[in-house]
Structure to design on (225 residues):
């Protein structure tokens, strides 16, 4: 069975500071990994995905994530936070066989202080 | 514009009532999914369909039903058997690279 753990349900940073959102996964097969962002009362928007092509994945809005197999991690980073980055972020792992559903972490709410 | 639409955006249900949430996609994807989101939790899988006229229970299917008569449409019915239906419901479709795209969601509240 797959699982995803997101450390820190709330993260607060100052505008212009580094953003680091943590994600660890458990999977019995090489995973496909995703980061999604959700603004209040909206659906999820794909930020980036890892499908084994390259360990450093660049996404939209200046975000990137690095797949580290030895640490079973897929942390999301952004060098300089912007006020518009305030949202909830979800890490997910895909069952890329069978039902091919996503298993989500519980989410991290990012606050950006002026 | 290709995408996924969900309606209504807000829905109120009385005790003992069945309600149906609409999900439509024009992305030409075969697979579609329904997830439920509760505060402070990730999304949980209710039902999924990998092809027209076929669907399967997810992890929390009790009290829900679906149909998949058309490729574009995957409606979800929340029945009176669902004991705690107040939640945010998200529909998604999946492309051939296993990427899922989400609709804007329906917020269901029980009165």
């Amino acid at each position: 069975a797959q699982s995803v753990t997101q450390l820190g349900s709330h993260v607060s940073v100052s505008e212009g500071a580094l953003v680091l959102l943590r994600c660890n996964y458990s999977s019995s097969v090489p995973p496909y990994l995703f980061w999604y962002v959700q603004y209040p009362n909206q659906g999820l928007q794909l930020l980036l995905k890892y499908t084994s092509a390259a360990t450093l994945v660049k996404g939209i809005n200046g975000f990137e994530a690095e797949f580290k197999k030895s640490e079973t991690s897929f942390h999301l980073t952004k060098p300089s936070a912007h006020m518009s980055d305030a949202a909830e972020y979800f890490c997910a792992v895909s069952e890329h066989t069978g039902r091919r559903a996503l298993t989500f972490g519980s989410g991290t709410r990012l606050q950006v202080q002026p | 514009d290709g995408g996924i639409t969900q309606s209504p955006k807000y829905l109120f249900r009385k005790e003992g009532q069945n309600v149906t949430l609409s999900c439509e996609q024009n992305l030409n994807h075969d697979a579609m999914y329904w997830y439920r989101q509760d505060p402070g939790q990730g999304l949980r899988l209710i039902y999924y369909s990998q092809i027209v006229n076929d669907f399967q229970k997810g992890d929390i299917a009790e009290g829900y039903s679906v149909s998949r008569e058309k490729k574009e449409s995957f409606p979800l019915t929340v029945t009176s058997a669902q004991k705690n239906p107040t939640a945010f419901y998200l529909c998604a479709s999946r492309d051939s690279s296993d990427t899922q795209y989400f609709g804007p969601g329906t917020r269901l509240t029980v009165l």
